Task: structure prediction
Amino acid sequence: MIRESLPVKALLRGSHLLGVPRLTATLAGRRLRILMYHGVTARPAVRAGGAPGAHPVAGSVVNHYGYNLPLPTFAAQIDYLVARCHPVSLDDVLAGRLSSRRTNVLLTFDDGYENNFVNAFPLLRERGVPALFALPTAFVDERRPLWNDVLEAAVEWTERDRVELELGAERAAFDLRRPGARAALFERLMRHAVEVPPHRRDDAVAAATRALEVEVDAERLFREPDYRPLSTDQVRSMAASGLTEFASHSVSHFLMARLDGPERVRELEAS
Result:
C-alpha cells in the first residue's frame, strides 16, 4: 500500500484533473502495467492494522498488510481503469492486442479467495473487465488453509497475555497486553515462516499455533468469509464468462525462489 504525503496527493490530483496520465500514455504508446490484487472484502472498514472487532488492548492484525481491499475502493479503481486506461487479458498481451493511445492494464488476483468471486467478479463482469486469477491448488482443490492466514488467525484469536517462542536460534517474548504487540508478533512469525526452508514452513506454523494455544483448522478458519478459497463451481462460472483466465500459483503456496529447480518444476506442473 502506498501512503502519499499531502503535497504529493495534491500533485497527483492536479495531474489527474489536467489529463497528464492520458497524455503520458499516448506518448509512451502500447505501455503495459500489471496490477496485482489479493482479496476484495465486503467488510465496511477493514484496513491494515485496524479492523472491526479489534482486540480491546493490543489492536488487530486482521488485514495487517492491507492485502484485502475494501469493495468501494476496488470499485473506484475499476471505474478509473475503464475510464482512463485499456484493461486487457493475458491473451490480449500475448497476441499483441494493445492500445497505442491508452495505458494497457492487466488485472491479476493471487491466491484464489472466494471473495474474488463474491465481491470482485460481479463488478468485473458488469464493466466487462478481463482478469487473470492465479490459484494455489492445495488451497482451492484440497481446501487447505493458506499458511499466512493460519498465522494471522492464530495471533488474532489467542487469549494468552504473554507468549515466548523459539524462532530458530532466537528466543522471543511478547507481552500481548501492550499496544502493538500482536502486530509485532505477527510480523515476526511471518518472517520466521519465510526464513525457514520451505518444507519446514508448515511445521513452523504448527509450532506457533501450539505456542499461542489456538486451534486453527479449516472448518473454523473458513467461517470467516475472507479466508475461504474459491470452489470448483465458482471457478467454472468465472471461466464460462470469457473474461477470466487462470494461472498456476504453485500447489503449496511456497516462495518459488526458495525452491531448487526440480522442486519448482514439480510445484508448477502439479498445480
Observations:
- The longest strand covers residues 104-110.
- Residues 181-195 form the longest helix (15 residues).
- Residues 46-58 have pLDDT under 50 and may be disordered.
- Residues 134 and 247 are 4 Å apart (CA to CA).
